[in-house]
Amino acid sequence: xEYLKENDIDVDSSIELLGDIxxxxxxxxxxxxxxxxxxxxxxxxxNEEDTNNYSILAHAMKSDSKYLGFKTLAELxxxxxxxxxxxxxxxxxxxxxxxxxxxxxxxDIVNKYLGGK
Length: 117
Prior knowledge:
This protein is mainly alpha-helical.
């Protein structure tokens, strides 16, 4: 858990929401599984300028990130969700790399953390 905290993940709030560390770890595993599908679809929707479906996936990522204590990813996802709802494709294109870089950073941290489990 210290490793997660060192990487600016708000574990304590998440465990409070989810009940215990086992539920938290299970939810982390679900996040990894969903991300494998979600991230490529987000890129596809961005490229197709399908802002409606893009916003839906950004919303899901925001919600998961908030529950799991990924503060920066939650904030970035919220921005993408809102800009997608505004059909601001330029914002999505200009800021997509920042979102994906943060998502991949979190995925790497979680994989390393769960690897020790």
